[in-house]
Amino acid sequence: MSTKHAKAASAFLEDKKQAAWFDETLWLVRAKRDKMSKEVPEWEWLRNTARDIKLYSNSHLEELLQEFERNATANGAIVHWAKDAEEYNEIVYNILREHKVTKFIKSKSMLAEECELNPYLIERGIETVESDLGERILQLMNLPPSHIVLPAVHIKREEVGKLFEEKMGTEKGNSDPTYLTHAARKNLRDRFIHAEAAMTGVNFAVASTGEVVVCTNEGNADMGTSIPKLHIAGMGLEKIVPTQEALGIFTRLLARSATGQPITTYTSHYRKPREGGEFHIVIVDNGRSKILGNKDHIKTLNCIRCGACMNTCPVYRRSGGYSYTYFIPGPIGINLGMLKSETKYSDNVSACSLCYSCSFVCPVKVDLAEQIYKWRQDLDGIGKADATKKVMSGGMEYLMEHPKLFNAALWAAPLVNHLPRFMKYNSLDAWGKGRELPEFSGESFNEMWKKDKVNDKKK
Ligand code: SF4
């Protein structure tokens, strides 16, 4: 039985050229991350410290968030609390409505994706424009992101050229990246100038100062917040860090892990409203506080959304972001999806080879693979175990519990080598799709070992 992920992955792999290019592109990002991290001698110390700070923050969340609210309010910001996506969308919409905003510019926010803020606002008549280039391309294509840091990584420049030709009237057949970037910049400039309010996501919120920190490479968050007097920042409640010293640990890890850069091009600190304006910060729970009580999965709250676990994941790189059923793909998405709904997103749990590469690269030491392994063990309990795998596991269990039968099976196994191809490679053998089965050895390890022992005695 194929899972939804397996079916979508097969479709993705049909375009061999595109699949190879996707894999290579992300592997390049992973290699850059490796190089950068090796240039920092205290890299492992940074990872351990980041994990410890997150552990501290997650176990002192209430007091840190209250401290943040006090300081942000003293700075002149207005802090709101949203228990779920619906409340978040309502709060943002009400702020915009009260200010009669019809033109709204946004920088990248995975929280907004999670809460489906854009369609909510657009349905209510607010022109909502993404200003991150990748996000803008996807918005014009009516597609969701396929990666959390490189949202349009799966789109080729020729496709962008065609899109811009249609939407922005660029030259026919011109897909030169510099030309297209200039066209996008020109197109967005007008939106920046006429926006009546701006939204940013939040990478970190500092409790001791009440400031929020936004990291971008394009400067679009800064452009967006430079003209309108109204700024709304949306943050998941796990974005809190205690102090600026703690913040420094995370900013050193984030860009190196995400794109292999020493630092993001723009790291903007927002503390107070612009003169005569308003600065709103919306703190969103949407299921996060429930994770606090889940000892097996609490570390997902450490995540700083760098995307490194996706770039390294052999399954993600070979199946693309849209193969997953949760809006965040890859190892972190598998875990977050299961925390959102075990029954709805259990399909993604099979999209893992348990190579543990994700756990090794994660800058905040989220135990991603360990958690996926745990979910797999729980699948049967929630009635979501794959029926074929269940039968096979039952068969293996029986075989292992009966040594005579097991040895007889080992003795007979090399016969498989002589079976006709159609008997080995058919719809029952999903593993053999695009792969060759290794040949069974004529002699089992057990037999070899016994022989060696006899030879040893003879010596
Ligand atoms: S789980 Fe770790 S590696 Fe994956 S996105 Fe989050 S911080 Fe990055």
Task: Kindly describe this structure.
The N and C termini lie far apart (53 Å). The chain has 22 helices and ten strands. The protein has a six-stranded parallel β-sheet, sandwiched between helices. It has a four-stranded mixed β-sheet with strand order 8-5-6-9. The mean pLDDT is 94. Helix 16 (330-340) crosses helix 18. 53% of the residues lie in helices and 10% in strands. It is an alpha/beta fold. Iron/sulfur cluster (SF4) is lined by residues 257, 303-309, 332, 361-364, 366, 368.
Low-confidence stretches: none
Mean pLDDT: 94
Largest sheet: 6 strands, parallel
Radius of gyration: 26 Å
Compile the SSE list and pairings.
Blueprint: H1 4-14, H2 16-38, H3 43-59, H4 61-75, E1 78-82, H5 85-98, E2 103-106, H6 110-115, H7 117-123, E3 127-130, H8 133-141, H9 157-168, H10 177-194, E4 197-200, E5 204-206, E6 211-216, H11 220-226, E7 230-236, E8 240-241, H12 244-259, E9 266-270, E10 278-284, H13 288-292, H14 308-312, H15 314-319, H16 330-340, H17 357-361, H18 368-378, H19 387-401, H20 403-412, H21 421-424, H22 445-458
Parallel strand pairs: 1-10, 2-3, 2-4, 4-7, 5-8, 7-10
Antiparallel strand pairs: 5-6, 6-9
Helix pairs in contact: 2-12, 3-12, 9-10, 16-18
The structure holds iron/sulfur cluster.
The site of iron/sulfur cluster (SF4) has 15 residues, from helix 14.
In short:
With 459 residues, this protein is α/β, with parallel strands linked by helices. Helix 16 packs across helix 18. The radius of gyration is 26 Å and the shape is globular.
